[in-house]
Amino acid sequence: MHVSLDGFVAGPQGEMDWIKFNDELFEYADRATSNSDLALYGRNTWQMMDAYWPTAADKPNAGTHTKNHSVWYNKVDKIVLSKSLAGQNIPKVTIVSDNLRAGITAIKERPGQQIVVFGSPSAVHSLMKEDLVDELWLFVNPVLLGEGIPMFRDIETRTSLTLKESVPFKLGVVALNYKVERRQG
């Protein structure tokens, strides 16, 4: 998840024009994504992703990252957190619309590599509240937004994190990978 230095994942109107990226960052993200075989999204983010990624590799100017991510997106199963999509049958998509803890816990117990969440700040807020996040991958961008959609909201108890990896990129972004320890309190 991209985040500003002051902790926002998007501006007040959802703008993300402040996010920095380049080939170096894309290569790193492609390596991390390749270790995931299941993607989790909130409904809004999934609808945006699903409108673009299935055919992104077919575009005339598609770069390496776009081609790689499009292939990955089409290959993996998806989980979408959504009440409005409840009961819909969508190929390669599992809709979790109620009892988040039970639904995600059952999915996490299946064999596989790992689940990755893209964007979806509301979904992350819900998952954090239910203590269902095992790791955080934050791409800290060198910008202060002052206001916007916060990365963390409604954290009711202290949650300890252990830094697993930090990678600085030439464009000023720092990737931080944290293991989420179980909550205290």
CATH class: Alpha Beta
Average predicted confidence as pLDDT: 90
Count of discrete structural domains? 1
CATH superfamily: Dihydrofolate Reductase, subunit A
Shape: globular
Written description of the protein model:
With 185 residues, the chain is an alpha/beta fold. It has a single domain, classed as Dihydrofolate Reductase, subunit A (3-Layer(aba) Sandwich), CATH 3.40.430.10. Helices cover 30% and strands 25% of the residues. The protein has helices at 23-33, 43-56, 64-75, 100-108, 121-129, and strands at 2-4, 8-10, 38-42, 77-81, 93-96, 115-117, 135-141, 149-150, 161-168, 174-180. The strands form three sheets. Strands 1-7-10-9 form a four-stranded mixed beta sheet, with no helix packed on it. Strands 5-4-3-6 form a four-stranded parallel beta sheet. A two-stranded antiparallel sheet has the order 2-8.
